[in-house]
Protein backbone atom coordinates (compact mmCIF):
# COMPACT_ATOMS: atom_id res chain seq x y z
CA UNK A 1 0.00 0.00 0.00
CA UNK A 2 1.32 3.40 -0.98
CA UNK A 3 1.73 5.93 1.85
CA UNK A 4 0.13 9.35 1.61
CA UNK A 5 2.60 12.18 1.11
CA UNK A 6 3.33 14.08 4.30
CA UNK A 7 2.39 17.66 3.47
CA UNK A 8 3.12 20.17 6.20
CA UNK A 9 1.36 23.48 6.40
CA UNK A 10 -1.86 24.79 4.93
CA UNK A 11 -2.86 24.05 1.36
CA UNK A 12 -2.58 26.84 -1.23
CA UNK A 13 -6.35 26.92 -1.74
CA UNK A 14 -6.99 27.27 2.02
CA UNK A 15 -4.52 30.15 2.13
CA UNK A 16 -6.23 31.77 -0.86
CA UNK A 17 -9.72 31.40 0.62
CA UNK A 18 -8.48 32.76 3.96
CA UNK A 19 -6.85 35.70 2.23
CA UNK A 20 -10.09 36.53 0.41
CA UNK A 21 -11.96 36.29 3.74
CA UNK A 22 -9.49 38.69 5.39
CA UNK A 23 -9.52 41.15 2.46
CA UNK A 24 -13.32 41.30 2.32
CA UNK A 25 -13.57 41.71 6.11
CA UNK A 26 -11.08 44.58 5.99
CA UNK A 27 -12.84 46.16 3.02
CA UNK A 28 -16.00 46.31 5.11
CA UNK A 29 -14.09 47.76 8.08
CA UNK A 30 -15.01 44.75 10.20
CA UNK A 31 -12.79 43.52 13.03
CA UNK A 32 -11.89 39.88 13.54
CA UNK A 33 -13.83 40.04 16.80
CA UNK A 34 -16.99 41.26 15.06
CA UNK A 35 -16.72 38.57 12.38
CA UNK A 36 -16.07 35.94 15.05
CA UNK A 37 -19.17 37.07 16.93
CA UNK A 38 -21.25 36.79 13.74
CA UNK A 39 -19.88 33.27 13.23
CA UNK A 40 -20.39 32.35 16.89
CA UNK A 41 -16.67 31.61 17.22
CA UNK A 42 -13.57 33.07 18.86
CA UNK A 43 -11.45 35.60 17.01
CA UNK A 44 -8.59 33.09 17.19
CA UNK A 45 -10.60 30.73 14.98
CA UNK A 46 -11.16 33.56 12.49
CA UNK A 47 -7.38 34.16 12.51
CA UNK A 48 -6.82 30.50 11.67
CA UNK A 49 -9.32 30.68 8.81
CA UNK A 50 -7.68 33.84 7.46
CA UNK A 51 -4.20 32.30 7.55
CA UNK A 52 -5.46 29.09 5.97
CA UNK A 53 -4.39 27.03 8.99
CA UNK A 54 -7.94 25.76 9.45
CA UNK A 55 -10.11 24.86 6.49
CA UNK A 56 -13.65 26.25 6.26
CA UNK A 57 -16.34 23.72 5.44
CA UNK A 58 -19.16 24.37 2.98
CA UNK A 59 -21.64 25.61 5.58
CA UNK A 60 -19.04 27.96 7.11
CA UNK A 61 -18.18 29.31 3.64
CA UNK A 62 -21.87 29.98 3.00
CA UNK A 63 -22.17 31.68 6.40
CA UNK A 64 -19.09 33.82 5.63
CA UNK A 65 -20.55 34.78 2.25
CA UNK A 66 -23.84 35.83 3.86
CA UNK A 67 -22.12 37.85 6.60
CA UNK A 68 -19.72 39.58 4.21
CA UNK A 69 -22.25 40.20 1.43
CA UNK A 70 -20.63 38.07 -1.28
CA UNK A 71 -21.25 34.70 -2.90
CA UNK A 72 -19.29 31.54 -2.13
CA UNK A 73 -17.40 31.66 -5.46
CA UNK A 74 -15.95 35.03 -4.36
CA UNK A 75 -13.59 33.17 -2.02
CA UNK A 76 -12.15 31.16 -4.93
CA UNK A 77 -11.72 34.03 -7.42
CA UNK A 78 -8.13 34.33 -8.55
CA UNK A 79 -7.11 30.87 -7.35
CA UNK A 80 -4.46 29.78 -9.84
CA UNK A 81 -3.56 26.35 -8.47
CA UNK A 82 -4.97 22.91 -9.02
CA UNK A 83 -8.43 21.95 -10.19
CA UNK A 84 -9.94 25.27 -9.08
CA UNK A 85 -8.43 27.28 -11.92
CA UNK A 86 -11.28 28.74 -13.96
CA UNK A 87 -13.83 26.31 -12.54
CA UNK A 88 -16.04 28.96 -10.98
CA UNK A 89 -15.50 31.99 -13.19
CA UNK A 90 -18.42 31.54 -15.63
CA UNK A 91 -21.21 32.45 -13.23
CA UNK A 92 -19.41 34.90 -10.97
CA UNK A 93 -20.40 38.15 -12.69
CA UNK A 94 -24.13 37.39 -12.60
CA UNK A 95 -24.00 36.09 -9.06
CA UNK A 96 -22.05 39.09 -7.80
CA UNK A 97 -24.54 41.46 -9.42
CA UNK A 98 -27.43 39.61 -7.79
CA UNK A 99 -25.72 39.62 -4.41
CA UNK A 100 -24.85 43.33 -4.68
CA UNK A 101 -28.50 44.07 -5.42
CA UNK A 102 -29.56 42.10 -2.32
CA UNK A 103 -27.00 43.97 -0.22
CA UNK A 104 -28.28 47.33 -1.47
CA UNK A 105 -31.87 46.30 -0.70
CA UNK A 106 -30.87 45.41 2.87
CA UNK A 107 -28.93 48.65 3.24
CA UNK A 108 -31.84 50.77 2.04
CA UNK A 109 -34.15 49.15 4.61
CA UNK A 110 -31.99 50.49 7.46
CA UNK A 111 -33.54 53.49 9.27
CA UNK A 112 -32.24 56.84 8.07
CA UNK A 113 -30.28 55.54 5.06
CA UNK A 114 -32.63 56.81 2.33
CA UNK A 115 -32.64 60.44 3.60
CA UNK A 116 -28.82 60.35 3.80
CA UNK A 117 -28.56 59.01 0.26
CA UNK A 118 -31.05 61.61 -0.98
CA UNK A 119 -29.14 64.36 0.82
CA UNK A 120 -25.83 63.20 -0.70
CA UNK A 121 -27.38 62.99 -4.19
CA UNK A 122 -28.92 66.46 -3.79
CA UNK A 123 -25.55 67.88 -2.72
CA UNK A 124 -23.89 66.20 -5.70
CA UNK A 125 -26.48 67.53 -8.14
CA UNK A 126 -26.28 71.03 -6.63
CA UNK A 127 -22.48 70.91 -6.91
CA UNK A 128 -22.75 69.89 -10.56
CA UNK A 129 -25.19 72.75 -11.16
CA UNK A 130 -22.87 75.25 -9.45
CA UNK A 131 -19.93 73.96 -11.45
CA UNK A 132 -21.86 74.39 -14.72
CA UNK A 133 -22.93 77.90 -13.74
CA UNK A 134 -19.43 78.81 -12.60
CA UNK A 135 -18.06 77.85 -16.01
CA UNK A 136 -20.92 79.61 -17.80
CA UNK A 137 -20.38 82.95 -16.05
CA UNK A 138 -16.65 82.61 -15.45
CA UNK A 139 -16.58 82.42 -11.64
CA UNK A 140 -13.46 81.16 -9.91
CA UNK A 141 -13.08 78.20 -7.58
CA UNK A 142 -13.39 80.32 -4.43
CA UNK A 143 -17.20 80.05 -4.30
CA UNK A 144 -17.15 76.27 -4.59
CA UNK A 145 -14.32 76.05 -2.05
CA UNK A 146 -16.32 78.23 0.37
CA UNK A 147 -19.33 75.90 -0.03
CA UNK A 148 -17.19 72.84 0.62
CA UNK A 149 -17.18 71.39 -2.91
SSE layout:
Elements: H1 12-27, H2 32-39, H3 43-51, H4 58-68, H5 92-108, H6 113-137, H7 142-147
Helix pairs in contact: 1-3, 2-3
Describe this structure in words.
This protein has 7 helices and no strands. Residues 86-93 have low confidence and may be disordered. The protein has 2 domains: 12-109, 434 Repressor (Amino-terminal Domain); 111-149. It has helices at 12-27, 32-39, 43-51, 58-68, 92-108, 113-137, 142-147. Helix 1 (12-27) packs across helix 3 (43-51) and helix 2 (32-39) packs across helix 3.
Question: What is the overall number of helices?
Answer: 7
Stated plainly, the CATH topology of the largest domain is called 434 Repressor (Amino-terminal Domain)
The residue ranges in which pLDDT falls below 50 over 5 or more consecutive positions are 86-93
Give the biggest beta sheet.
Answer: none
Structural class: mainly alpha
Query: What is the level-2 CATH architecture name of the largest domain?
Result: Orthogonal Bundle
Summed over residues and divided by their number, the pLDDT gives a mean of 75
* Highest-level CATH class of the largest domain: Mainly Alpha
Gyration radius from CA atoms, angstroms:
23 Å
Q: State the share of residues found in helices, binned by percent.
A: 55-70%
Beta content comes to under 5%
Order of helices and strands: HHHHHHH
Number of strands: 0
- Rounded to the nearest angstrom, the distance between the terminal CA atoms is 73 Å
- Into how many domains do the coordinates divide? 2
Q: Tell me, what's the shape?
A: elongated
In CATH terms, the superfamily of the largest domain is lambda repressor-like DNA-binding domains
Amino acid sequence: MMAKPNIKGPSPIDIHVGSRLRNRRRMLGMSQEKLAHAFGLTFQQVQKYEKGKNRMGASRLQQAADILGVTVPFFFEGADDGPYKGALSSDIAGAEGFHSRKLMERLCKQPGVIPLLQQARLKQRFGEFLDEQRHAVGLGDDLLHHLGW
